[in-house]
Write the structure tokens for this entry.
Amino acid sequence: MNKKISNIPRLLSVIVPAYKQEKTIQKDLVNIITTLDQGLTNTNFEVVCIVDGELDNTYKEASKVKSDKLKIFSYKENQGKGYAVRFGMSKAKGDLISFLDAGMDISPKGIMMLMAHMEWYDADIIVGSKKHPASRVNYPFLRSILSFGYHFGVKILFNLDVSDTQSGVKIFKRKVVEKILPKLLVKSYAMDIEMLAVARFLGFNRIYEGPIEVHFDKSMSKIKWIDGLKAIWDTLAVFYRLRILHYYGK
């Protein structure tokens, strides 16, 4: 999974949303920057860290990382992961725009493989997938069962041929982001569904999956049961806007 990308002369923006991660954000950012610096030969990159609410010392700790590859933005109130990613997309300069969860459940090494898949398929979007046969996954059994049920429902509602919509890493072509960004509304964890559904609705059909490496750390997880219920509600709201209101076509 460490395939080296050596012949793609473009800029990759990696958005890293961070919420209450003062204890780990400095180490996480160093790890991401070092991994990309070693793996992306002749490919420029920037890491755009979005501190989702100035509620602790996350911004202060992130600012201790000294790198010309790093940009850090913050705002006062917590808005949710979806908002943070959208905010980061609006600041990104890259030809390709990715996002990666802080916390390192998902190894940043996977970005190189996803970049390779982006090139192989000439994809509009590459989705990091725990279900990909080449993925290395250490994930709780109960979460796997719940994830399966959720994605079964998503496939019925949106007819998306993606087995893992909710993984915390994806890569988009800039033209996709520019088209979908003004239409996105979801601020929470269902933002992945909205991005993919809107992209497909707008004609970006080259959506493929690639392998990732996942090591779940329960102590670092910020997702609670209530977040899962909100994600389901937001998913149904996306369906309503897409199929009933036809909001995304306006």
